[in-house]
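Minutes, project huddle
Topic: does the predicted pose make sense with pyridoxal-5'-phosphate bound?
PN asked that the exact inputs be recorded in the minutes so nobody has to dig through chat later. Recorded below.
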Amino acid sequence: MTAGARDGITFAIHPSTEPVPAARRAELLASPGFGRIFTDHMVTIEWDEKDDWHGAQLRPYGPFSMDPASAVLHYAQEVFEGLKAYRQVSGAVVMFRPTANAARFNRSAARMSMPGLPEDAFVHALELLVTQDRDWVPGGAAPGGDQSLYLRPFMFANHVGLGISRPSDSYTFAVIASPAATYFSRGGQPVSVWLAESYTRAARGGTGEAKTGGNYAGGFAGQLEAVAHDCEQVVWLDAVEHQWVEEMGGMNLFFVHGSGAHARITTPPLTGTLLPGVTRDSLLTLAPDLGIPAGQEPISVTQWREGCESGEITEVFACGTAAVVTPVGAVRGPTGGWTIGHGTPGPVTMRVREQLLGIQFGQLPDPYGWVHKVC
Ligand SMILES: *Cc1c(COP(=O)(O)O)cnc(C)c1O
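Predicted holo structure (tokens), as shared on screen:
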């Protein structure tokens, strides 16, 4: 059985003969955690120099068989994406801005000397998987909740051989799906962050703006340092002066200046060393429509600390697909720390969080055309 072609790519459909029984699925969905359980199917597409993209199929979720000399295992030629499917209040299952992820996926791929996948085929692969595994999309937004189906497209090099004179000549693209509750155990509660001064995540000309595995491998040392100092997340600073705030391990940062009718939000500009988040872009767009001006401005650690001390900075929050919008309550670093506002979720943070979740779950209108209906 095939499901039509996209950009000349034909998808073969091979449904699982042993899907997880409904009762067991319900048990798993009762407390999915994050990235721990996976649905019944996955999509894979192969690429090589001779045949371009081919062999696209929806098939049962399962292990890959790999040669030990596969390029990705040695030289980390890999890129990935992360987005979510939501069950809206109407019962429709939708994705949020999948074409933005398709475009970023191809920018990451280009940086890592990997082939691009036509955007249509990327989105179609997601649609096929979500449609097939729609019973795995959690029930929707309980008050204060935000359960969804996290989608993880990725691509890796599978040329067999250890030569490093050129990029791989063959790749596998795949999509897997994982039901997800909030990313942080205390969803919606403020997190504490650690200023990484001894490690650097990315420098100009490097791979910081690509969603590629090695950035995260190199980042664990900073994250472990954060945890060792009782902080939940690491904040990365610029590689040259270690003064300018960039982002967190998997989230972008926003600063709230002023309060009430005078509140405005800022986020560090895209310098090439931080990940251009789809959530970041969405908030820059929707905040002004809520009467909250939004801009991109550099901010140093000193400005952050002094801004909190003077009361000019009233709230700080992190944002990303997995964590949605999460308040930051306290900052710590090698030379001390400080509290942001009252260390509790602030009104501007909660306002933009509600607006974003409302659009995603279909409780609020979507004037931006961000919601992509699947089934
Ligand atoms: C994925 C990611 C983000 C957030 O991007 P979204 O598109 O909003 O999910 C931010 N920083 C890093 C390092 C990331 O990997």
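Observations noted during the meeting:
- Residues 82, 211, 247, 250-252, 275, 277-280, 320-321 surround pyridoxal-5'-phosphate (CB under 6 Å).
- DSSP finds eight helices and 19 strands in the chain.
No decisions taken; revisit at the next huddle.
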